[in-house]
Fold:
Amino acid sequence: MSATPSSPISPSPAADSGGEPLELAHRFPGVRDGWARFDGPAGTQPVDVSIDATAEFQRSGLIANGHGPFPMADACDALEERVRAAVGQLLGADPDGVSVGPSSTAMAMRVATALARELVEGDELVVTELDHDSNITPWTLAAADAGATVRMAGLDPATGRLPVEAVLDQINDRTRWVAITGASNALGTMPDLSPVIEAAHAVGAHVHVDGVHRTPHRSVDLADLGCDSYVTSAYKWYGPHAGILWMRPERLQALAVSKVRPAPDEGPGRIELGTPSFAGLAGIEAAVTFLLEVGLDRIEAHERTCFARLLDGLLAIDSVTVYGPHDLVERAPTLAFNVAGRSPHEVGIALAAEKIAVWDGHYYALEVMKALGLDDSGGAVRAGMAIYLGLAEVERLIVAVDSLS
Ligand SMILES: Cc1ncc(COP(=O)(O)O)c(C=O)c1O
Structure:
């Protein structure tokens, strides 16, 4: 069946959004080649100012190292401080808790490795089926090292959502940490974090939130949210490849991190191993400034308009199965789908022939695919919105998928 404008979601998505379309594609050199880049959940194209800032810093002569006796070293120190402040502003969080490393997985693994030294037999950790494996395996490894137990909160495969009760049921007075996603990188669903954080804190446990898929799509206020630790990856929000950990400063200070002796004993530097990528830091600073200038609320409105049409269009194609919720409630603009009679990889290849980039497989959301019963059949095709995409690209994707029926 052809995709039609008739809509089970929103007959007039533009009217639904309450926001003007963002015309920002010209700020992204990486999308000037005619490709429609729905692969943002795997990594976005960097914005012009971030690319320029990275190159400028490398050309400037300011590349040195921190804590030296000459002005270029001071410039490196100042850049680090500015990045902590900028990220603190983006996340609504204390800048003294911001540390930067190669990836969110690396930062989660560092935290978990340190945590293993605190845990004792009988302690429990809670993880969820909705999470990317980088928010599961670090904790299961830590628990295995310490003889602690891991409890897994199950998602509801019918809705693609993680019910709050499913997480609360796993929390008890032996719980030490709860690791939960801010948004699924496969289905887009965003769990209700506040009751989980409240319940964990009530038993003296801490909460680590994987904010990698949430940060590019929603404004975040960690002071308000109240979690203890949070990761986000700058390359998912138009910056360079880097992972950022925010941890409540006093909690970070207490963490038994692995570090070399001369590295700082205090502050976020204690979990940052070795010399940072100063060029990368310059790119992060510029990407944060860009995001704050555009505004997460405008980004959310624009992406909602486009995503509503994408969801409508795919749901209207008989041969397409869309996993997860068929609505716009509490979700990032990301969906997973399959086309009857085609493997997810075949769909990915066919769309690539039309210069449309999507992902196929499990995208490290192993438990999600298991819960959906897709782990042995190649997973699903994933398409996600980014701010350089508009309704024209969405129509291209819908038409291309429809033509595979
Ligand atoms: C939800 C989520 N968490 C964690 C990660 C891992 O991020 P990184 O590549 O920075 O380790 C990803 C990457 O795709 C992700 O989508």
User: Anything to note?
Assistant: Residues 1-18 have pLDDT under 50 and may be disordered. The chain has two domains: 13-47+295-402, 51-293. The pocket of pyridoxal-5'-phosphate is lined by residues 41-42, 103-105, 132, 134-135, 181, 185, 210, 212-213, 233, 243 (CB under 6 Å). The chain has 14 helices and 13 strands.
